[in-house]
Fold this protein.
Amino acid sequence: MTLESIGLGWSYPVSWIIGGGLIYGVLLLWHARNLFKKTTRSEAIKLSVLRGISGLFLLLLIARPFIEQSQTNPDAVRLVSLIDLSGSMNEQDNEDGKRRIDQVRELLDINRADSWINLIRSRYGSVDRLGFSDHDVYAIRSSSWAEPDEGKSTSLGNALIDVLESEESVNLGAVVLFSDGRNNTGKSPLEAGEKFRERAIPVNVIGVGQVREHGNLSVAFADVPSESVAKEELIFSAEIKNGFAKDKSTTVRLFNNDVELETRNLSLGAGESRIIRFSPHIPEIAGIRTYRVLVDPLEGDADPSDDVDVHVMQILPPQFFSSLYISHQIRPIYPFLKRALAQDRFQLSSLIRLGEQTFHALGDNVLPHGYPENPEFWMDYDVIMLDCGSLRELNASMIGSLKDFVQKRGGGLLLFGDPEPAQELLGGLMPALETQSAMAKEDLSLSILPDPLFTERKRLDQWKTFLPGGMPAELVTRINPAARDVVRLKGGSNQSILTIQAYGAGKSAYWGSPHDWKRSLINEDRSLEFSFFWSGVIEWLGSGTVNRIKVDQQEEPRSAGEENILSIDVLGQDFEPSMDAQVEANVTGPDGYVKSLQLYPQGGSLGRYTGKFKPPVAGSFRVLYHISFPNGEKLKHLSYVKIKQHGDETKDTRYAERELQMLANLTGGEFIIIENIQDEWIPRLSSSLPTITKRTNLADAWMIFLIIFFAAGMEWIMRRKAGLK
């Protein structure tokens, strides 16, 4: 609002006002002279001043002075709020702060009555909300606030020119730009600013971001083998690079899945690169392992995707298998097992009750004083061959740790003998749910399935396995949903004597023919067959979980803001590709990202399930797969996905405050940091907009009447006190 003119509302010649004022002045002097004669000097001065004030303001009422001011016509003003929706607005300047775009969204929230956009609309009416990214300018919708997730480039100069040259630019009063100042494509913002200055339209700039140190800290595995062997030392190395211009300190962490193996504190000079070697790690069991190395993020890190590196490694079965035979009675099969496992790759220990207080013990860690009581006892072995009757002589802690040995440590458990104690005390760890005691009159032929115990064994169909006649045995008639029969009675019977299952990280099996030793007495071929059979069983039990789930190792990081495919191959209970499983992936990532998605079979690829998710930011995303089979079996698998930043926009996300200030100064607009903006803030407008004139009549002010009343009243009171008329 600007002052245009000052005038009088008196409709007659001004000379009349001047003449009347002179006459009143003369009369006031004459009146004051008389007062000096009739009262004291101080009283006369006070009464004269009060009479003068009353007359002066009475004269103002008669003259009716006014002030005329001009202001921009709010009905003819068009304001444009222009919001940067490029990828750099997805940046979070402080670790605990809000993203840049979220700060803008609060001010432009049309659903909040006291937001800046609603207050400014109540003042001017037409205030557009436009957004831009790449070379597009468009009206803001509720879905537009997710645009920065896509990592599009910034074309700030082109967006300003598009607004200026649009058909709606008539009566454009000002542009309010919300941006971090990044510009990596199209015309220069200052080039656009020149055009705004020619049209005398100011660009008010709201700076979104913070000036901070900028650089990049990265970590990657160095010289890591593609496979290793269980029970052998595995040493990891990692290279850490400091891309900052200053010395930096960080913490490097090595993980096996979610288990932290080692932590190292590290200080690096500016631009320094260093390779560190972690302490030796010994994987206890075979299988697929996912190792991660990561550095704690630093403020100002330009690329969080290289703060972590992931390596999937195949851990091969150990060169030798440590096994323990434990029984509550002497069984003839033991010496035959001992001879069958008398090979370099097997190390057999044993503990057998010979009498009430007498035990046979074989092995360095086995003592002939009774059954073990230390729960950690099992963990020194790869395979436990356990007579089920021994379970009733073990305490609860030992039984609980035996379950952990299989489920958590990944060991193998072979159960034989009376199945009832195992079914009662071990629950689902026992693969045979129901058995039938049998004693055949003659030998019964058995069939052995090659998969998975003897997949690589040739001429398996030539083995002459049999169930010894005249000897007691337990035939398995019903098994766990996750279990599988491997050795069955021939002739189409559903009865078996060996059933196996993967259980947690390990495996378990039940053998129902403890008199199998008889076939090794027939001839040398049957003796070799017996040794091949039992060495294969022990190797399978000690080699860790069967890899029924496979996730391809990620070769290159995927991109944030794009659809990324999760793919997993699943084998069923029969170790064939499964097409009837239910697969769910729970994805967690940076900034509290959480998403659950269902994976569906992929046409043309048996056993493969795929799903899509769109990661909003770069970094490491944890994917936990839950697989459910129709028979009730459930499996889990943990994997990690590296997500890189998308496009040119992410190469430099620094806050460019200097460029924004230059744009505002060039166009005559105001520059203000978003943290300092108030809801009542009014942008600078163009001086060439249509205006309206507003007249203010001073005589209408109630203060004038109050002053006249006050002065006249005081004069009357003082005259009465002084005894004057």
